[in-house]
Specification:
globular; alpha/beta; 37% helix; Rossmann fold
Length: 246
């Protein structure tokens, strides 16, 4: 399948704080990988660096064979790498269907919708995320779980090869989490490479075959969730924070 994302010696400093410290990993095309670590470990900063929202102090990022280290977010999206955010973002007063259509106007989205048209493309995505009945409703009145789905729907509309999901289960009920897990699994089965963050390992153990663990900006472990959950360094990182790890 080949490597779709290659991160080498990535470092990001904010003043005197090193948020990401000489961090390296690879992700195979079509893989489903989790990035874990206690709160403040640097997970979101890694995503910010990969997606172009922050620039590293050093290190390189290659996506699908292209160096994207210095590229802007919209250029990276156009190559096929899309991300979601911990804080849900949408056009609050624009109908849900139009939110999807706006994302579908990206170059790769246009390519995907060329044969069936943008309206049909957006409607199909809404059906896949279980929001077709919400098509005319503005996001401002939607519950949190639906907003999470909409955010993923907008990302899907850009026709990604690799989707970065930053804490997608945050604030969701158990039922909402199950619905979102089903959606994410289906995306991966359809060929989208998934890279997902979480600080509670238990949430990801049901979902991914591989996790990368980090702490204080550094790489500490990589492997199957059950193995990583019993890694001494990982245990110390989580227990030292008083957080759940399994």
């Amino acid at each position: 399948m080949g490597v779709i994302l290659e991160v080498k010696n990535l470092t990001k400093k904010f003043g005197g704080l090193t948020a990401v410290n000489d961090f390296s990993f690879e992700i195979e095309r079509g893989a489903f990988v989790g990035l874990i670590g206690p709160n403040g470990a640097g997970k979101t900063t890694v995503f910010d660096l990969i997606s172009g929202f922050e620039k590293p102090n050093s290190g390189t990022i290659r996506f699908d064979g292209i160096d994207i280290t210095a590229k802007k977010p919209h250029k990276i999206v156009n190559l096929g790498l899309t991300r979601t955010f911990q804080i849900v973002r949408s056009f609050k007063f624009m109908p849900v269907l139009d939110n999807i259509k706006v994302s579908g106007l990206s170059p790769r989205g246009k390519l995907a919708s060329k044969q069936i048209g943008l309206d049909k493309y957006a409607t199909t995505i809404l059906s896949s995320i279980g929001l077709i009945d919400k098509a005319p409703i503005p996001p401002v009145i939607l519950p949190h779980g639906s907003l999470r789905k909409l955010q993923i729907g907008k990302a899907i509309a850009t026709n990604p090869k690799l989707l970065l999901l930053d804490e997608p289960f945050s604030g969701l009920s158990n039922e909402e989490q199950k619905e979102l897990i089903t959606l994410i699994r289906q995306l991966n089965e359809d060929g989208v490479t998934i890279f997902i963050t979480g600080h509670v390992l238990r949430e990801l153990m049901r979902l991914v075959p591989r996790v990368i663990a980090m702490h204080q900006g550094k790489f500490i472990a990589d492997g199957p969730p059950q193995v990583v959950a019993n890694n001494k360094i990982v245990l110390e990182a989580y227990l030292g924070k008083g957080e759940e790890f399994a």
